[in-house]
Design goal:
6-stranded mixed β-sheet; TIM Barrel; single chain; 21 helices; Rossmann fold; binds 1-deoxynojirimycin; Immunoglobulin-like; 3 domains; globular
Length: about 725
């Protein structure tokens, strides 16, 4: 705690000159438009609040000229001239839409997230936006929850790696000043929002302390370690205490234990919502609870600004806590250089994706795709994919075949301005010599004239060598407020696939989706299935790259695909019951499973095929025994494994390291991902992949409320595999 406080003297000098009203004003963020939350936007209030020094930040406004106009009022007309900070939901792109975050996680390549953030920061910052409300890092086992699309899936280790990479991409390295082509990041939503009961948006969360620390906190810790400037509170309650009033999470863990000196912003009206939650009696009570718990800035609702004076007067909030919140907000503005350069250079505004950023988005999308299945339907070939570029006729059918609805939820302003490349367009360009037939078949969400549409699609399939069926979810069915009770393909899309299957002709199913889907009975008849997720601006090109083999798919599932919606939650890192299922537990009746389903998910976490094949050697460890004390002092063990591309095509494999503690004083997950590396290998080439296991990978958090991390004696099982469920040889590390 003895490191110097950044910008301390500048902040203190300003604080000394500020009136109470100006201090409360800094804590207020208002929304220019209401398009990302309930209500109509507050544009009317904003100018006068800025002029009177009663406003710290604005969200949902972009454009260099428009933000400058408003900034001029704050800087040139308010008494102290404190600049505003402009925030926006830049989630997976500003003009250049990258694939959704869930897709990026499927790449198992955090550089994709870093690149997205760098490109987004350049574009957004040149448009006057200083602050991205991302990365979202809610670990979730709930594919019904729409916001799974914004997440990195079901694993805390993978999520933490993507969170840190994205923070660095937005802010640059080091956690210090944020350059003029970078932006402040926001780690959200603090915390455990991904555990909403039933996957229902905004719903209740009740988690044990150990699960909070093992599953939900690690990505936030990684973001704080990467220097994240801000954190956003979550809408949910956390074991009975709303996250917006949760001093244990916001103050004890985040600000005290982790030494976080940035801003905690509320979510949209999250302070006022303490009232309907049943936690605060009225706006003054909500302001008191939120500020005292650790909220520094209030988004949209105005409880703290409206009631702060009376709360201070009657001692319900302290002058120190108020000054601390103001100091954090001023520090953010200093980090961003806004006092010296409050305005955005209007001549340098970026107004469109460039050829280079399009290329990056295309590569990112192709790298994110996951090949679930690739069987044969043709006697002359082993596998259906990749399709031959010499193909003479191809039918492209389905509601997303010729659709631009491929940007995904929470796409930035680029989604309206720059339509995504359609799949038909991508395929046309990839195989210019082929005859392309197109039929929509069915509507994406049902209704319409399904039967004639299906007949047209069948006719197109019958007239072609191969059919590509592009089905999935519209962007509107995922993202905030996008919970679904049935995560199958909406409408009659499954029937469309079954009708094409009945033709007996070869076909590929391409899924464009914002969540893991329950694929349904058609899966058995589909020779090849590719998950493209919501691929973003360059969707059609990236899909064609993979279908025709210009890119060999190497993505892996960041979240398990269930067999049916009723099987949810089903995730790889579960704990064993006393009556587990699986090959070693034969009694099918008395197991932790459903009578009407095979055991396990349809496709597990970490699964994904390639057009080539890989073989793993047996893993070796540099030591097989270590003591807990040695580990706590920083000792590590290296795990290495040889991986060989055994096929005839260059390709990527994701080497995954899992551990399991089979006997512990707190039951541990059957597998925990503790390392991954995506390697590119030429046909026939091999390489050695090395991982390091340390204390964090071997110990676990107990249920002590103040946080207790322990390493116990006993065996740790170590696996290196190409999926969470692969049967591979196990190595044992003994902790003495
Ligand atoms: C509500 C969402 O939960 C949050 O993620 C977003 O940043 C804000 N609205 C602002 O739009």
């Amino acid at each position: 705690m003895d490191r110097p406080v950044p910008y301390e003297s500048e902040i203190n000098a300003l604080l000394a000159r500020m009136t109470l009203e100006e201090k409360l004003g800094q804590l207020q963020q208002l929304a220019w438009t209401g398009d990302t939350g309930p209500g109509e936007g507050q544009a009317r209030l904003i100018e006068s609040a800025a002029r009177e020094g009663r406003l710290g930040s604005v969200l949902n406004l972009h454009g260099a000229r428009r933000t400058n106009d408003l900034q001029r009022i704050a800087v040139e007309e308010s008494r102290l001239g404190i600049p505003l900070v402009f925030g926006l939901d830049v989630i997976h792109g500003f003009w250049t839409t990258f694939p959704i975050s869930l897709a990026q996680a499927a790449s198992f390549d955090p550089d994709i997230a870093r690149l997205d953030a760098e490109v987004s920061a350049r574009e957004a910052r040149s448009n006057g936006v200083h602050w991205a409300f991302s990365p979202m890092m809610d670990v979730t086992r709930e594919p019904r929850w729409g916001r799974v699309s914004e997440s990195s899936g079901e694993d805390p280790y993978l999520t933490a790696a993507f969170a840190a990479a994205k923070v660095r991409g937005y802010e640059g390295e080091g956690g210090g000043p944020i350059a003029s082509d970078r932006m402040a990041a926001c780690a959200k939503h603090f915390v455990a929002y991904g555990a909403v009961e039933g996957g229902r948006e905004y719903n209740t969360v009740d988690v044990s302390e150990s699960r909070l620390r093992a599953l939900h906190l690690p990505p936030f810790r990684a973001a704080v370690d990467a220097g994240v400037a801000t954190v956003m509170a979550a809408f949910n309650t956390l074991s009975g205490i709303p996250a917006h009033a949760n001093a244990h999470a916001l103050t004890d863990i985040l600000k005290r234990d982790w030494d976080f000196d940035g801003v905690v912003v509320s979510d949209w009206a999250g302070v006022a919502e303490l009232i309907p939650h049943g936690f605060a009696a009225d706006p003054a009570d909500a302001a008191r609870l939120a500020l005292n718990a650790g909220i520094d800035m209030e988004m949209v609702s105005t409880c703290i600004a409206d009631r702060g004076e009376e709360l201070l007067a009657n001692g319900h909030i302290s002058a120190e806590r108020l000054d601390d919140a103001v100091a954090r907000i001023l520090r953010l503005k200093f980090r961003l250089g806004l006092f010296e350069h409050p305005y955005t250079d209007e001549r340098a505004e970026i107004s469109a994706p460039s050829a280079e950023t399009r290329r990056s988005a295309r590569e990112a999308a192709a790298r994110s795709m996951v090949l679930l299945k690739n069987d044969s339907r043709s006697v002359s070939r082993d596998r259906l994919l990749p399709l031959s570029p010499d193909i003479t006729s191809i039918a492209v059918v389905g509601p997303f075949a010729d659709s631009t609805d491929l940007h995904g939820a929470w796409a930035g302003p680029g989604a309206d301005a720059f339509p995504a490349v359609t799949v038909t367009e991508g395929i046309r360009l990839a195989v210019p010599g082929a005859k392309i037939g197109y039929a929509k078949g069915v509507e994406s969400e049902g209704g319409g004239e399904a039967t004639p549409g299906i007949a047209e699609a069948v006719a197109a399939a019958e007239a072609s060598d191969v059919t590509v069926i592009v089905v999935g979810e519209p962007a509107g069915l995922s993202g905030e407020g996008g919970s679904r009770s049935d995560i199958g393909l909406p409408g009659e899309q499954g029937e469309l696939i079954e009708a094409i299957a009945r033709t007996g002709r070869p076909f590929v199913v391409v899924l464009t989706c914002g969540r893991p889907l329950a694929l349904g009975p058609w899966l058995a008849s589909a020779p090849a299935v590719l998950v493209a997720w919501h691929p973003g601006l360059e969707a059609g090109h990236a899909i064609a790259d993979v279908l025709f083999g210009a890119v060999n798919p190497g993505g892996k599932l960041p979240a398990s695909f269930p067999r049916t919606t009723g099987q949810v939650p089903i995730h790889y890192n579960h704990e064993n019951t006393g009556r587990p299922c699986g090959p070693d537990h034969q009694d099918p009746r008395y197991g932790a499973r459903y009578l009407d389903l095979d055991h396990g998910p349809e496709f597990p976490f970490g699964h994904g095929l390639s057009y080539t094949t890989f073989a793993f050697g047996e893993p070796t460890l540099t030591t097989f025994t270590l003591s807990a004390g040695e580990l706590l002092d920083g000792a590590t063990v290296e795990v290495s494994v040889t991986v060989r591309n055994t096929g005839d095509r260059d390709g990527d494999e994701v080497v995954q390291l899992y551990v399991h503690d089979p006997v512990a004083s707190l039951v541990q997950p059957v597998r925990r991902l503790r390392g991954f590396q995506r390697v590119s290998l030429a046909a026939g080439q091999s390489t050695t992949v090395r991982f390091t296991l340390g204390a964090e990978d071997i110990g676990f958090w107990t249920n002590a409320p103040e946080g207790e991390f322990v390493i116990e004696q006993g065996d740790i099982h170590v696996y290196v595999a190409n999926s969470s469920q692969a049967e591979v040889p196990m190595r044992t590390l003994t902790i003495k």
